[in-house]
Automatic annotation (TrEMBL):
Domain of life: Eukaryota
Secretion signal span: none
Pfam families the record matches: 2OG-FeII_Oxy (PF03171), DIOX_N (PF14226)
Span of domain Fe2OG dioxygenase: 200-314
Keywords: Iron, Metal-binding, Oxidoreductase
Protein name: Fe2OG dioxygenase domain-containing protein
InterPro entries referenced in this protein's UniProt entry, alphabetically: DIOX_N, IPNS-like_FE2OG_OXY, IPNS-like_sf, Iron_ascorbate_oxido_reductase, Oxoglu/Fe-dep_dioxygenase_dom
Protein family per UniProt: Belongs to the iron/ascorbate-dependent oxidoreductase family.
Amino acid sequence: MLFRASVHVRSSGLRKRCFASAAAGFRIPVIDFSRFRAARSLAEKKETANEIVSAFKNSGFIYVSNHGISEDTVSNVFRKSAAFFKLPEGVKAQLAWEDPRSNRGYVQIGRERVTQSANAAEISALREKAPDFKETMEIGRDWDSEWKNQWPKESDVPGFNKTMLDFFQTCHNLHVEMMQSVALGLDLSQDFFDSKIDQQCHNLRLLSYPPIKRAFLDGDGQARAGAHSDYGTLTLLFQAQVGGLEVMDPQSGVFVPATPIPGTIVINVGDLLARWSNDVLRSTLHRVVAPAKMISSTETITPARQSIAFFSNPNFDTLIECLPNCGKKARYPPVNTETYIVGRLAATYM
């Protein structure tokens, strides 16, 4: 695999561009989102919007810098996440994920098996053969009248609940702005998606990848998290510096490292946004692999890894069908957001 990471800084405006590329020129560009937020006209906003949509058409992934979420905020969320995962298994088990319609709670190692398959029996076999070596905590909107978050006791992780709820809202606000940029880049009105995402039917996922001997990951199909695409509109991924995320070049099929870049968020297109855009925007396969270090002359171990993903979704009552000016013939039949997402979740978990 040929891989290149490069940084270019242009003095006029100090515009930074970083990207990962494979031999065929696959790139994940860095987009300075402050140019969109500070723009004085729609024309100025559209310049950045066009860059974002162009990247989403080609790779489905971007790094976003100057996104408005402070480094202190992100660091605090990582600290609270780490404190949660250090709790005894028995304490975490009391908060266990129960229902795909809720999608809230603690998911122990091996319970989830991400894959592109939609066949429950096939996924069950994959999970038995090669489970994902990660644990997660799933958090939704807290005011939901039907489904409640599974919160740890305040005494177990002081400040956890408030930190995560504040961060949930912060990520939603950025998601709204990002979707406004997508709308402009697709030549729609800036507010086209606003009323279709305002119910905040999102999922904040805290992820912990404990250390594991590399030998356990060398079997057929094994990975920290198998190759998959995401389900919703956009995913906001906050990476720690350990790395491990790889994105598949759609042209060559080669997985390319999405190396962490300090101060940026990785944002990618999900399946429902791809369907909405009639595949004008690309929902790209990605996976998490395990960098390893030697612990003896014959054995290696993967380091602990943390990440935080904000899976953004349309309102659950939204009908996803081909957007205006995204082709005359729809590639997919219309689908209800909740039906699609709950169906995917039901097949993914045991």
